[in-house]
Structures are given as C-alpha cells and as structure tokens.
Amino acid sequence: MKRHTGQDRSITQNWRPATQAVRGGTARTEYGETSEALFLTSGYTYDRAGDAAARFAGEQDGMTYSRLQNPTVEMLEQRIALLEGAEAVRCQASGMAAMTAALLCQLSQGDHLVAGRAAFGSCRWLTDTLLPRFGITSTIIDGRDPDQWKAAIRPNTKLFFFETPANPTMDIVDLKAVCDVARNAGITTVVDNAFATPVLQRPLDFGADVVAYSATKMMDGQGRVLAGAVAGSNDFINNVLLPFQRNTGPTLSAFNAWVVLKGLETLDLRITRQSENALKVAEFLETRVPRVLYPALKSHPQHELAMRQMTAAGPIFSIYLDGGRKQAHALLDALRLVDISNNIGDSRSLMTHPCSTTHAGLSEEVRQEMGVTEGMLRLNVGLEDPQDLIEDFDQALRAAGL
Asked: Are domains 2-264 and 268-399 of this chain identical in fold?
C-alpha cells in the first residue's frame, strides 16, 4: 500500500492522543481512500518463487499469510502503539487471547510468577489452573501492597501480572512502586490496562514492560467485536511474543480490526464523557447503598493514588448491597434502562452480578479472598444522560427495598 504522507513515525509519535486515535497508522492504497481499507484475504501472491522464499526468510518486506500479517490489522497495531507510547504491538483474537499469549510466550516449566489477587475471573483461571498444568507456579498477593510483591519474589520468579484498576473490586496497584520492584529484580511486568485504556493511563510511562488489552471493551466501545492487543518493546513483541503467536494462531480478523479502528476514533470522547457520567451516578449511589467502590470518589481507599496515575477513573465501578444475591438480583431485575450484561466498555450502561457470572467459575474461597461477595454488583456507565440513569437506579433501588 501507498503510505499516507504524514505516517513517518518520527512525526506521528509527536501527535497528541486525539490525533493519533484518528490518523495514526493510516495506510492508503493507490485509490486514496479516506477510511481505512478492509483487506479480507487469508493469503498473498508473489511475482516470483524467489520472492516467496525471500519473504519467508525475512529478507524481503511484504505479507505472507494473514495469520502473521494483514494490512488492516497492521494499521490497528500501529495506531495502538502510538496511543500507548510503545515500540510495537501485536493484536490478538480476544482480550483473553492477549492475556494468555502475554504470559505463555515468556514462561516455561519451573518458572514462577506473582499476580494480584483481584482480577477478572478468566485471568485468575490462567494463574490458578492453566499455568500449573505446565509446571509454572504462582503466588497470589494483595496487589495494593508493594511490599507483598517484593516479599513474594523467588529465585525463579520471571513475571509480575496485575490489573489496575482491577476487575471488579477496583483495586489500584501503585504502578511505579511495583514496576520498580520488578525492574530491580530483573522481572518482567505485564499489566492489564483494559479498564483505563491509554487515554486514561499509560503503564509504560511508569516502568511497565508489557501492557495487555481486551480491545473488545473501550477500544471498540460499542459491543460489536472481540479483539485483544499486547504492547511492548520491539524486542519483546518480535522475538518473544511473535514466535508464540505465529505458531499458535490467536489471530485477530481483519474485519474486527477495522471495527476497532473505527472505535478508536471516538475513544477519547467516549471514555471522557463516560467517566463524567460514572462519577455523577456513583455520587448518587453512594447516598443509597452501603458501599460504592469508584476510584474518582474521595471515599475510595486509594483515591489519591488512582488520580496520580489516571487522568480520570473510567466508566466502571462496583457497589455492595447488604442483602446478598437475592437483593442484588432484585435490583438487576428492576432496572428498566440499564441492561443486565456481563460486558463492559460499551456505550450502553450495563450491570452484572460477578458472583453468578464473570467470577462464577472461581471457588467461594477465592472470591472471598478477592472481595467478590454475593452482594456485589459491577456497573458500566454508558453515554446515556446520567439523570436518566439516576432515575432508573432510584426506582430499581426502591423496588429492591433500598
């Protein structure tokens, strides 16, 4: 493809995030299209047999197979890299494909990792169930305490893995402190930044080595497709992650990449407005329910740390009710505007009961350790008028006896 005249990396990396989100990574064909082209192809042809051999040997630039390269996917990778401030990015088929690849590509039998206890249910399944099958051990700690990270290090510790803010407890990890501990010990940090996105928080700026995403969430932002991404240095992406991805195939489709490219164009606008809406809704709920966990609220135990690391707190937070699952389900059933859904990052407001959905596969003991109780509900605040959301919660709370 013919490159856009402004796509020199030395220029685009100095663009501000809103500009990068719209124009970063753009490549145009000879037709001069304004919207990114969608390349629905599995393979590519060569003018000569020698060209094919040269490409497979890495001696000639060009595409070989869409499990490895696709022009549409490549544009998304370059755009996310610019937003993240990363040297390189590889996209994956889903957020969990990204998390799995980011861990397995660099861990081997006999290795040890340390992980924050508060995490998405499937991420805890990786650390607690999958990795031990391959002889990889893990220590689960309270990620909010930097001293626990340091104390958990063993001679064979290779990796720190955590989310901040964490799903669904909204735990905040001190990025600089924990990344400093890891770097001093020669340990790689992998940060799940899906709740914040690079618009609100850039872990690499605090010393993280690898950042992983479910781009299904805010990057798409409209509940349409699955996608994931892993960001890091050129060396990590091309020499550590790429061999794993090439041979295991968690490939992002070109169509899904194109949809996420369109989503990125409005990411800054959406997440800024959704953060504003979420704060208004959280302030209302704080007057009606026993506990609200939202980092933008001064009542959050890590409010100051969160606001040092993030420019806003995002659209997601959790509330706790005293009446357990019965009352939590009653509140959900009484909602008229907010949808019951286990997705997040959508432009629509969504709410779920983690104990019976996203974290149902974990044992009661692990859920209690994480702080995921039967009375917890997780809310994704969308782009609706916040007053309409508040009115919906008002009537639903009254219906649930609150």
From this structure: no
In whole angstroms, how far apart are CA 279 and each of 124, 198, 328, 363? 28, 20, 21, 32
Contacting residues for 363 by C-beta, under 8 A, at least 6 apart: none
The secondary structure of 325-367 as a DSSP string is: HHHHHHHHHH-SSSEE-S--S-SS-EEE-GGGTTTTTS-HHHH
CATH topology of domain 2-264: Aspartate Aminotransferase; domain 2 (3.40.640)
Cis peptide before 168 (omega within 30 of 0): yes
Contact 298, 341 (CB under 8 A): no
Residue type, 357: T
Q: Find the length of the chain.
A: 402
CA angle 240, 96, 245 (to 5 degrees): 30
User: Could you report the per-residue pLDDT of 14-55, keeping only the tens digit for each?
Assistant: 888 889 989 999 999 899 999 999 999 999 999 999 999 999
- Residue 314 near residue 278 (C-beta atoms within 8 A): yes
d(CA 199, CA 65): 32
Structure-token pair, residue 375: 């009375």
CATH class of 268-399: alpha beta
Overall pTM surpassing 0.70 (yes/no): yes
- The span from the CA of 261 to the CA of 221, in Å, is 11
Domain map of the chain by residue range? 2-264, 268-399
**Beta strand 228-232 with 316-320: parallel, antiparallel or unpaired?**
unpaired
pLDDT, one tens digit per residue, over 122-181 is 999 999 999 999 999 999 999 999 999 999 999 999 999 999 999 999 999 999 999 999
Gyration radius of the chain's alpha carbons: 22
